[in-house]
Write a structure and sequence with these properties.
Radius of gyration of chain B: 23 Å
Largest interface: A-B, 53 and 50 residues
Number of strands of chain B: 36
Strand content of chain A: under 5%
Number of helices of chain A: 22
Number of domains of chain B: 2
Distance between the termini of chain A: 22 Å
Strand content of chain B: 25-35%
Structural class of chain A: mainly alpha
Oligomer: heterodimer
Helix content of chain A: over 70%
Largest sheet of chain B: 26 strands, mixed
Mean pLDDT of chain B: 89
Radius of gyration of chain A: 22 Å
Low-confidence stretches of chain B: 8-23, 383-389
């Protein structure tokens, strides 16, 4: 065993121990955390307990991403870091997400602050939300317009969520149309019932402008509106009609995910028949589209997950098994640094249907697939993403997978 | 990658892809694929042997001052998911050229001199994962008219070794894609494709995302185009293109980027060659999409270009095809041999879609001029699956095609302004000026040369700094984090030239105005050859790089002699 491997194993053990000893984790060590700044203990908006190993694995993923040299890979490094930060948020690990953002440079760290702020805002903690929004808006002076607009829009959403619409509108003034459209969608969530019709009118107008960004905003807006008017037949029918028409104008890849998301949402709101219609459309699109080999599993798994979430566990399993077979039949057609993403998608799909063994096998293969490229940058990106994906699945890695991760990490060195 | 060294050198070859650098300059022959991240250093010269690919995952880093001088057939292609980090600097550019050109360099003429040649080596091709607008004839059968992350295309001039060879593909679903950075780089005398009937562009960019950095690029003598961009969102700044043997700045398949600070000088690269094969064609040729109802469709924004045509060439300044939407602002169009605005409608290439403006419910040519910038097409509409990317960001005001705040000068063809007038380019609100005095400081042309069915008057001296109507603009570019808010028209301010220090045009003596006289012995750049420079030279005795004034790869007595000979203040 070489010294690198020993070091990484030791680090792993320390991380697990530290996470297990202190649920609050980063807040205790990070003087700059918003929890500390606000003068009271951190209380993640999503308070569901998260196993220490998941925290440790996310930390591991972030550390792997951070091994990518800033020069000349600053952009790739930040992207990989942010992906881990987003999974922390997804799991409700707010302090870990803040820690990620604190350790990042460039606009992506700012975006992550804003996303964390949104979590706080959603939980009703306006003070921390505002603090995070401020931190997000403290972006680098040389930031490019498109990145600045992305960050500002997320920050504006934070203000909107905490009820400070005037500040939100002030931030959005002069932003690019695309970002403004996304912001407008967010406003639907805060509209009261009396405004729903006028919101729908606005969505119709957006779709009718033939401006894609506004039309897309209309679709997203109607999707958000639909669940609020699900028991109000005239309004529900209006929303459904508009959605069915507008979705057909989207690119195919986006049609798949929008239809699948709507199916899940409708099912959750007691509309199984409608859910089945949207799911059927998503599946049909997948079936009739010739995707590149590297896209087969990622798009297919979206539909499989939607099947499960709409009550069709058998269908979801059948989809996943077919996709797995397709992947292994065509994996050689996929450039090596693109293979692990298919396997991660499959693993997450199998984990969702409760097939732990299949998920673990895909995770093992994902780690291995991520070690094929002879350069450490793509290997680190893959390993980081795979660590985050395993944490997301909730399947605790056994000793064998941990060794795989350690081996993969120990191999990160020149050339990058 | 296979590397071997040539000549008397201490370089050591290890395995098939690693090399230990020696203190003595070496010519490094590079062939095959670059599979692992590699750095090319300024103390060597690299000679590309055949088509060299940088493979996915690998990063090719090229140090400032490195010369890549290749034999015929040598060419560099950077695949999707690979990176090129090629960063020269203002006094030490990276130079891609031919070995033939390099052999003309001498200590007294270290940058060489202009020759009427091209096609002496290949080019630089970079491929990325940004969206492209291409379906139908000439595209993979799986491509769709609507934007799709699965849409891709085979790069012009590259030949796949088989159906599973993806090295030649560009396009994808990530407009934020990062292919690396390319700065302060000359690309000279290229364009040769071995075994194919067509030529390469000086710089080919397919599906390049906006996280890629490209600035301070010069293309000198190339056949085919100077720069060609297919789809993607990459932005460019400080671009100098001379004597392209076809179009100077060519766009296809839905480029949605911005460009600022440009100089384009039309001319010829190969004596006797037809237009498009060694003699200039259009300055700008912008195609929208293929077919034209596909999305993304080219939607671009250009500020501060100085476009200098050939008055007797019968060649156009700006061609528009297949729904292209382009805004030209604060620029100079002078000495144009035909129309300053020309609607070709389609590209007339059977393998590239065609169908023109208005096809399948898209905007007509006339309506594209009057439709607001933010009205994107409802036909096969665009989106990005990732929420952080927006499809069309380059334009932020005005109409989809517009000319504002430009200067037009000495465009004397009969139909020079026919289409421009039909589109109200000179309406007062557009602030465009037809000048009677030159908008640049000076230009000198050589003797007439019969080329491409017309006459070319080569530019042999140019001071492109703004003059007269170009000194002050009516407005400035938007403050969007990319554009610089400058208040002059054209690519250059009245007082300075960004061509100084790093370009072939300066090395050839064409654009020396506004530049300090080169002072190679002034190692620390303080315009004084003195003790500090001597110390730096002696500190690198028997080394390479710093202090190697005669370029022989080692710092010795002859370099010391050259420094002492230049002792004192540098000439201005």
């Amino acid at each position: 065993m070489d010294s690198n491997m020993v070091r990484h194993m030791a680090a792993w053990a320390l991380l697990v121990a530290a996470a297990g000893a202190c649920v609050c984790g980063c807040a205790a060590t990070d003087q700059r955390s918003p929890a500390a700044s606000a003068g009271h203990a951190s209380s993640p908006p999503n308070a569901e307990p998260v196993a220490p190993w998941r925290r440790a694995l996310l930390r591991e993923g972030f550390d792997v991403a951070s091994q990518i040299p800033v020069d000349p890979h600053a952009k790739d490094r930040a992207r990989a870091q942010e992906e881990v930060g987003k999974v922390c948020l997804e799991l409700g690990l707010i302090d870990e997400a803040v820690d990620c953002a604190d350790r990042m440079t460039g606009w992506r760290g700012c975006e992550l602050y804003a996303l964390i702020g949104l979590k706080y805002a959603a939980s009703g903690d306006a003070a921390r939300a505002r603090l995070l929004a401020l931190r997000a808006l403290d972006y680098p002076a040389d930031i490019e317009d498109w990145a600045r607009d992305i960050v500002a829009t997320q920050a504006a959403r934070v203000y909107l969520q905490i009820g400070d619409e005037s500040r939100a509108l002030e931030i959005m003034k002069g932003r690019a149309t695309a970002e403004v459209a996304k912001f407008e969608v967010a406003r639907v969530a805060s509209a009261d019932a009396a405004q729903l019709d006028s919101q729908a009118d606005a969505f119709d107008r957006g779709i009718a402008t033939l401006n894609f960004d506004l039309a897309r905003s209309g679709i997203d807006g109607y999707s958000a509106l639909l669940v609020r008017v699900i028991d109000d037949a005239p309004r529900r029918d209006r929303a459904l009609k508009a959605l069915e028409s507008a979705i057909k104008g989207l690119p195919i890849d986006l049609q798949v995910s929008v239809n699948a998301d709507l199916a899940v949402s409708l099912h959750a709101h007691g509309q199984p028949a409608l859910a089945a219609q949207f799911l059927g459309r998503a599946a049909e699109l997948n079936k009739n589209t010739t995707f590149l080999a590297q896209d087969l599993a990622p798009y297919g798994v979206i539909v499989a997950k939607a099947r499960l979430r709409t009550g069709d566990a058998a269908g979801a399993r059948a989809d996943l098994e077919r996709l797995r077979t397709q992947y292994y039949a065509h994996s050689e057609e996929i450039v090596n640094l693109r293979r692990a993403q298919s396997l991660r998608a499959l693993a997450e799909g199998f984990a969702l249907i409760g097939d732990r063994d299949a998920a673990v096998r895909c995770q093992c293969d994902a780690i291995e697939a991520g070690t094929i490229n002879p350069n450490s940058r793509p290997r680190a990106e893959d390993l980081s993403a795979t660590c985050a994906s395993i944490a997301r699945t909730g399947i605790e890695p056994d000793a064998s997978i941990r060794k795989q991760i350690e081996r993969a990490r120990a191999g990160l060195a020149d050339p990058w | 990658m296979k590397i071997s060294t040539v000549g008397s050198t201490l370089a050591l070859v290890i395995g098939s892809s690693m090399i230990a650098q020696s203190a003595i300059a070496a010519e490094i022959l590079v062939s095959g694929n670059i599979n692992t991240s590699t750095t090319w250093t300024a103390n060597n010269t690299y000679n590309l042997q055949g088509q060299v690919y940088v493979l996915p995952g690998a990063t090719l880093t090229i140090q400032a001052g490195t010369v890549v001088a290749s034999d015929a057939g040598g060419s560099l292609a950077v695949t999707r998911d690979a990176r090129l980090v090629c960063n020269g600097n203002a006094s030490s550019p990276v130079i891609f050229t031919s070995k033939t050109d390099k052999n003309t360099w001498t200590p007294s003429n270290p940058g060489g001199q202009w020759r009427a040649v091209a096609n002496e080596w290949g080019n630089i091709t970079i491929m990325g994962n940004g969206y492209i607008g291409k379906y139908g004839a000439g595209a993979p059968g799986t491509n769709t008219a609507a934007p799709n992350a699965g849409n891709y295309a085979n790069m012009e001039g590259l030949t796949a070794s088989g159906s599973s060879d993806t090295r030649t593909f560009y396009g994808g679903g990530n407009d934020l894609d990062n292919s690396g950075s390319l700065t302060y780089t000359q690309i000279r005398y290229g364009g040769l494709v071995v075994g194919l009937g067509n030529e390469l562009n000086g710089l080919s960019l397919g599906g390049i995302g906006r996280s890629t950095t490209i600035n301070h690029i010069e293309i000198m003598n190339n056949v085919d185009d100077g720069i060609e961009i297919w789809g993607g969102t990459v932005d460019l700044k400080y671009v100098s293109i001379w004597n392209a043997g076809d179009d100077s700045f060519d766009i296809d398949h839905g480029w949605r980027g911005r460009a600022q600070h440009g100089l384009i000088v039309q001319g010829y690269s190969i004596p006797g060659a037809a237009s498009g094969s060694g003699t200039c064609d259009s300055i700008f040729e912008f195609d929208g999409a293929a077919k034209s109802d596909a999305q993304p469709v080219t939607t671009a924004n250009l500020y501060n270009f100085t476009a200098i045509g050939q008055p007797l060439s019968n060649k156009n300044a700006c061609k528009f095809r297949d729904n292209a939407r382009v805004q030209y602002n604060q620029s100079i169009f002078m000495d144009i041999g035909a129309a300053v605005v020309r609607n070709d409608n389609t590209d007339n290439e059977a393998t590239d879609g065609q169908t023109g403006y208005g096809h399948n419910g898209t905007l007509t040519w006339a309506n594209t001029w009057t439709t607001a910038y933010n009205v994107t097409s409802p036909v096969n509409p665009f989106s990005t699956p990732a929420a952080i990317a927006a499809a069309y960001r380059a334009q932020s005001a005005g109409t989809l095609i517009q000319y504002t705040d430009n200067v037009f000068f000495n465009n004397n063809a009969t139909a020079a302004y026919t289409e421009a007038n039909a589109r109200s380019v000179f309406a007062a609100a557009n602030n465009n000026v037809q000048a009677t005095s030159s908008p640049i400081t000076s230009i000198t042309r050589g003797s007439n040369v019969s080329q491409g069915g017309g006459v070319i008057q080569p530019v042999i001296s140019l001071d492109p700094r703004a003059a007269n109507n170009a000194v002050t603009s009516a407005g400035t570019a938007p403050n969007d984090g990319f554009f610089d808010q400058v208040n002059y028209r054209g690519g250059f301010s009245p007082t300075s030239s960004w061509l100084c220090g790093w370009t072939a045009s300066q090395a050839f003596g064409y654009t020396t105005a506004g530049c300090s006289t080169p002072c190679p012995a002034d190692l620390n750049g303080d315009r004084l050859v003195g003790g500090a420079d001597l110390g730096a030279l002696l500190g690198n005795w028997n080394g390479s790089g710093t202090g190697d004034l005669n370029g022989d790869g080692i710092v010795t007595g002859s370099d010391l002699g050259a420094m002492l000979g230049a002792w004192g203040a540098c000439a201005q």
